[in-house]
From TrEMBL, chains A, B:
Taxonomic lineage from the root: Archaea, Promethearchaeati, Promethearchaeota, Promethearchaeia, Promethearchaeales
Organism: Candidatus Lokiarchaeum ossiferum
Documented EC number(s): 1.1.1.3
Name by which UniProt lists this protein: homoserine dehydrogenase
Family label: Belongs to the homoserine dehydrogenase family.
Top EC class, one word: oxidoreductase
Gene3D superfamilies, alphabetized: Dihydrodipicolinate Reductase, domain 2 (3.30.360.10), NAD(P)-binding Rossmann-like Domain (3.40.50.720)
Keyword Oxidoreductase: yes
Amino acid sequence: MVSLILVGFGGVGRALVEIMQNDADYLRSNFGFVPVVKAICERQGSLIDDNGLNLSNLLDLGDIASSPYWQAGLTTLEIIQEIKADILVECSWASNDGEPAFTVLKTAMQKKMHIVSSNKPPFYLKYGELKQIAQEKGVMMRIESTVLSAVPALAAETTLAGAHISSIRGILNGTCNYILTRMTQSKLPFKEALKEAQDLGYAEADPTMDINGKDAAGKIVILSNALLGWNKTIHDIKVQGIEDVTAEDIERAKREHKYIKHVCQAKDGKLSAGIELVPMDSSLAIMGSLNLVEFETKHAGPYTFIGRGAGGFEAASGVLSDIIHISTQLYDSKKENL
Amino acid sequence: MVSLILVGFGGVGRALVEIMQNDADYLRSNFGFVPVVKAICERQGSLIDDNGLNLSNLLDLGDIASSPYWQAGLTTLEIIQEIKADILVECSWASNDGEPAFTVLKTAMQKKMHIVSSNKPPFYLKYGELKQIAQEKGVMMRIESTVLSAVPALAAETTLAGAHISSIRGILNGTCNYILTRMTQSKLPFKEALKEAQDLGYAEADPTMDINGKDAAGKIVILSNALLGWNKTIHDIKVQGIEDVTAEDIERAKREHKYIKHVCQAKDGKLSAGIELVPMDSSLAIMGSLNLVEFETKHAGPYTFIGRGAGGFEAASGVLSDIIHISTQLYDSKKENL
């Protein structure tokens, strides 16, 4: 059994609870994983039950504030002080300064909790500080879903350890990729392609962070810190978006047998995020809303991982892989199954 | 420090020693990994030094039998009885019955050593038996390079744990893929494409196991056992090779906007390995000598991993990732870096 405090019950948090509930048998038999959710924290208050909340009942509630375990006004920081849990799972929200998530994560590690997060800003702003606290306190910090949801990009720290990653590049924003794909394949104008992406749920109602390149830039910052040992922030990268790409640009590229793509890169100590012309037979020439990350290695050439980089269940899947990883580390008896 | 017995000093074993030597600083600072190679076993005898062999000196030797630490006739099984090491690393050879590798791996686990192997036959013949011994003895069994070298396919057991893998398919043999690619893109006849693959070093002098599909079939057997919890052997799969593919077949497929590919699959309890017509825009339509594995998941769609699936340094990189994984499990002090 591993005990959790869950911060945030939006799309990701709710999907996480749903998977843990519906996959309970698979998770127990394959990974010895039996979660006990001691608290769920939202902005207006918290659900709390030291014996573990009933996940099935929870999912039946439209509004968790209607639960008998709901305590209005009880804050996440109060919960962290009051409740002892193995892992704090943070799937909430952060503004441009990384708060309130940053303080929540920091406080939880200071209380010796391991942390799992799907929240980007704390990690593209203050990765070094959080990593240092994790090391000082001897806790694990797993943040797969801050990058490409469940695509095991950050896991490459260990899974490609022997190959020795030397640089990273990728198509790190599905909305940008979808818009450019539609402009390329069906000659849609930018605005129409964006509208379609919004209608299909790929782009947010406010798609600014997607199309101005900042979302993708934050991801390459996190990748470079975690996998190349850098200590960068979003302020160390010059970011170009896709707003100014025209139908003419795309047609000109095609005549040179190239596609226009939004590419992020971490190489030779430098970060970049912007428009690139890539050959039509390049591994980066991936179409649709898919994401792609490619690791160049010292000993074994490039490795490419492709998958959906966004979505509630996708992010929750990555969060759950991180939770299971920590859980199997905590319980020696399961080590033979690693 | 982690102590190793290395079985086999051919292309993979030698590449492994070279990487451990040349990347010593990177491995120590990133993973706290400091290997002590206590013995290297070959068919004619073994090198042995309980204080750890000097890897740099070893690499300078053309023939390891000329080392002062060489003991002619000393067998791997004698070494396993005599020497205490954390991990037995098996990069040797096995015939169609899995021997001598199977007995070596089994004996090492019975002596409570963790094992890492790049040798396919023991695992596509007797996966269940070896896994059971590992569980009974509480040792780890890591075999990434038995499938696609350093492509972290078997690592998906944990890295995609949350997404819940439901089926697997892939292009699992680089020689087949190269031959079909050349037949498709340059209209080469089969025999000429095969000759080219041999000249370039993709195919073995005896390419039988590649082109008859058995090599790829062995890999999907191992993938299904490790990731889907099956207990299959190579005898449970009907295997088709690429020997009978003609130029006409390929042109006919092209007219339907399809490519001919050698595809392996594990789905709904069934294994397959053979020729398939795949749409030109399918994720399986990968060209050249690259390998590809795709995991369908219950919660987050498909995940595709692409990379080089063969070669001495590629296999050694996968073996080393496995060794590092075990090493970090053994030493708690490094856990915060996981």
